[in-house]
Design a protein that fits this description.
A hairpin with a 5-residue loop joins strand 9 and strand 10. The chain folds into two domains: 234 residues, Alpha-Beta Complex (Spore Coat Polysaccharide Biosynthesis Protein SpsA, Chain A), CATH 3.90.550; 192 residues, HAD superfamily/HAD-like (Rossmann fold). The chain has 436 residues and is of the alpha/beta class. Helix 8 packs parallel to helix 12. The strands form five sheets. It has a seven-stranded mixed sheet with strand order 5-4-1-6-11-8-12. Strands 16-15-14-17-18-19 form a six-stranded parallel sheet, sandwiched between helices. A two-stranded antiparallel ribbon has the order 2-3. The two termini are 41 Å apart. The longest helix has 18 residues. It is built from twelve helices and 19 strands.
């Protein structure tokens, strides 16, 4: 597979740093950012690379030359005028006869590219977009996908304040079929996310590859500082999916939001105190934040899947406004007891995803390559605690919601609320690191 790195921007938000070098040549750990991308591509045996340049192109070309010293083959296309993220690809259309990967030159990336390629080949779409939640969705362009990971909507910022949105952001790494080139106008400045994707999703199949791996643009001085810190700490290296991650699994009702029996109306969803601070603290650690929740309201026909997901969009939107995020939400809509006239019979089944069964935990383990042995489950009921114990997780009960008073099943730890549960886990994790 061929790779194209788009590195023609001026980096105006980088101040003096980008006056003498392109922003893609700013150093992280002693190497230009774009060199890290080239090394990543080479690791996954992608060695045919074209760099689209513009501003101070000679700096890039003089450093990498033909790529021989880096074990790859590099060619260049210099834009006469800046054509956004799309125009340069159209200009080299004749070189792109097979599926190809695109990276933006100002994004620090460490991800399992083989897995991304396999996803793209399986879906057989016009394009695959790498996507993820971030901690500032309120000022990001957002998108949504369906159960088959097909992109169904794009939402430009600023967002409608009267709506709630899923926290999914375009991470600016793509795999395209050459068919995408027919959607780009030659010589016209345009952006994939703003001008191309929203126009073609009804005619072309675009899929979202959702990942928690390391993808962070360093287009501002603040983000550059964060990327450098993450690289120095080893966080960038550890966040490739080839390496296992720790997770904190969270129940929803009674842990994150107020316990209301069979909550099914969006207006009734309200956070408990300090929830954003608790989840933000998880985000600042190396733990994933993953919700695992039973939602039999669907089986009982109190609400539809669509209405349930609107509640989850409210949860994600409100957290995002406080710069907190969930890495994933898994829910079970089923209930085993059937025979009631008002029920939704499609969901009245015995399943392996309803807690205390561990089907959703195992799905998350597979999706994110989670190290269950060093992960935790925070819940307020016996179902949560039994699920956590059955999955081999350390369990932490909270006194909110049901308060772990619904049976004699005891968690490994019992604390007052989610914030104290997260604080306990962070203290234990720090102690474990200090003893290694």
């Amino acid at each position: 597979m061929k790779a194209v790195i788009i590195a023609g921007g001026k980096g105006t938000r980088m101040g003096n740093l980008s006056r003498e070098i392109p922003k893609s040549m700013i150093r992280i750990g002693g190497k230009p950012l774009i060199e890290h991308q080239i090394e990543l591509l080479k690791k996954y045996n992608i060695k045919d690379i074209t760099i689209i340049t513009g501003y101070l192109s000679e700096v890039i070309e003089n450093y990498f030359k033909n790529g021989n010293e880096f074990g790859v083959n590099i060619s260049y296309f210099k834009e006469g005028k800046f054509l956004g993220t799309t125009g340069g690809l159209k200009e080299i259309e004749r070189q792109l006869k097979e599926d190809f990967i695109v990276m933006y030159g100002d994004v620090m990336i460490n991800m399992d590219i083989d897995r991304l390629i396999n996803f793209h080949k399986k879906k057989k779409g016009t394009g695959t977009l790498v996507i993820h939640p971030n901690d500032h969705p309120y000022d990001s362009d957002l998108l949504d996908i369906n159960e088959d990971q097909k992109v169904i909507s794009f939402y430009r910022k600023p967002h409608n304040k009267n709506r709630y949105f899923r926290n999914l952001v375009n991470a600016c790494v793509y795999i395209f079929s050459p068919k995408i080139l027919k959607c780009i106008k030659k010589g016209v400045k345009a952006d994939f996310g703003k001008n191309v994707f929203p126009k073609i999703i009804k005619s072309e199949a675009l899929y979202g590859y959702n990942t928690a791996e390391y993808l962070k643009d360093m287009g501002t001085l603040e983000r550059l500082k964060e990327v450098r810190r993450d690289y120095k700490s080893g966080k960038v290296a550890r966040f490739n999916r080839e390496r296992k991650r720790k997770a904190i699994f969270l129940d929803r009702d009674g842990v994150i939001n107020r316990e209301i029996d069979l909550l099914h109306k969006i207006k009734d969803f309200k956070f408990l105190s300090n929830i954003d601070k608790a989840i933000k603290r998880i985000n600042q650690s190396e733990f994933l934040s993953i919700v695992i929740t039973n939602q039999p309201v669907v089986a009982r026909n109190l609400c539809s899947i669509k209405e349930l997901e609107k509640i989850h969009k409210k949860m994600e939107t409100l957290l995002g406004q406080k710069r907190a995020k969930l890495d994933a939400i898994y829910y079970c809509p089923h209930h085993p007891d059937k025979g009631f006239p008002e029920e939704n019979s499609e969901y009245k089944i015995s399943c392996n995803c309803r807690k205390p069964k561990i089907g959703l935990v195992k799905k998350a383990e597979k999706d994110f390559n989670i190290d269950l042995k060093h992960s935790y489950f925070i819940g307020d009921s016996s179902r949560d605690i039994l699920c956590g114990k059955s999955a081999g997780l350390v369990t932490v009960g909270v006194r909110t919601g049901k308060g772990c008073r619904d049976s004699n099943v005891k968690p490994d730890y019992l604390v007052d609320n989610l914030y104290k549960a997260v604080s306990l886990i962070m203290k234990k994790d720090d102690n474990n690191k200090n003893t290694i």
